Amino acid sequence: MGDERRGNDLSQQLYDALIADFPSHAPGTRPVHAVGIGAVGYFVPSDVARNFSFAEHFQGGRIDVTVRFSNSSGLPVEDDQAVDVRGMATKFQLKGDRTVDLIMNTLPVFFSRSPQDFLDIAAAGRPKPDKAETRWGRLMDKLQLREPRPAPNPLSPYSGTAGVVKYVDVHRFARPGVIAALGQVAPASYARATYHAIHTFKLTDTDGKVRYCRFAWEPVAGGRPEDRSDLPNDYLHIELKERLSRAPARFVLRMVLGCQGDALDDPTKLWDTTRMRVVMGEIVLTGLAGVEGAGAEPLSFNPARVVNGFECLNDLILAARRDAYEYSCLQRGGTGCPV
Amino acid sequence: MTQVVTTATSKVNQILEWFLIQFWKCRAPVTTPGSVWKTAPADNLQQCMNLVMPLSDKSGVGRAMAAKAVASNVDEIFTGLSNVGTVHFARFDLIGANLCMFSVYDGDFASYIRDFISVFGSVFDALMLLVEDPPQLPSELHPESFIEWIRMHDAFQIPGEVTLLFPEEPDIANLPRDVILLLEQNRNVQLGRYSAYPGLSAAQIRLATGVDW
Question: Global pTM?
Fold first, then answer.
């Protein structure tokens, strides 16, 4: 009871910390990744996938999937042009109404090692009025060979970036994740971005051999940033609807095999690009989920919803996400909350 | 007229940047990171060597001599690389006034250079006569100084996100300047690399595809 209570307290703290970062958050929506669009389709594992895991979705044949694409902001207003992390949450429908989730985003690496780190950076990133840099400030940046500060977002006059930057000056483990977040670009399409599962998973094959792996969805159409600034604020939704009305959208599930010395339970650590990569399958998205893609909105996606042969490790952030996502689902009245 | 003004502004900017770089080189110097000791097997596979060797005669005559020296030794180079056995690919390029050898190999850098000294060092000795400040020759008799010379002419490699090379920088707003100063120190840089088959050695690939014994 005590452990459960602590877990619940932590979930609520994490949830509240996120809400505090988005003061105009709309009740009944997710605290982050509030705006999303769903798609349906199927996943086909590759011929070699079963050599690495006995999990059902890697054995062969089509598995129905539901995907939710999103912007990471917790604001209820869609702003697809914003410098923002994009999400791709996938639910694999297994036999007997069981499901497995694979939650990814466009960050290759995270900025917190533990729930406390997360609470600290969320506190550091509380939004404050964002003013344009003065001419004097720009001149000083130029003289110091620094880059000028980005202009404030007209749709969101508050920003937590300055606080986060101060935080990473001291907390250096967070740098890779924050630098990756600050360097995010708006994609031309949700179907033209690469998404990463920031955690490491344990895969077991039929012989009992264990491998530690990370995953990414790579768009078959190729990655493409959007360079036009005159698009509507919901251009990603419009584009996905048009794209799926013309033809399916495809992603390859790429798995990276960890090596000796790689961080297994720390999502702030990148793995070297020299690691062996394996194609585990392909997802084919054939249409929108429900009316206008709203069919995935009530669903609970949870990064800890796994299955035998494809399991979580002792990762503090992943454990905290499991509970916080459940708490969030209950708060907004979502479906399928208990993992 | 507009183009003239733009060009002049660009020149002024470049001069200003040059002065700023000289100032910050003294005020906040950066150190080029050394190689990191790694233990994972995959870290010893498919290493890159990007050898940039300035030609002593930078004219067309010097470039033609270099091209001829490589072409007339193709058999020796190919046989040597095959005998080294750990090379995925290697190529010679003339880029500007530089003779370059780009290769991808498995294993340790010094061992790789030692191997190629022993199997086609004579070809390299001939090429060394065409480049600036050559090492002591013949390479077979001076392997250590030859290895060091090659190391000095191997382009600096940035493994991933460049700003992560400065974990001790206390202010991340200074990272762009650190990168500028790093690139001032290292004129030749490998910015990134891709492999279709990471984590596999040349020997494993040859064995799996049935083209070797």
Answer: 0.91
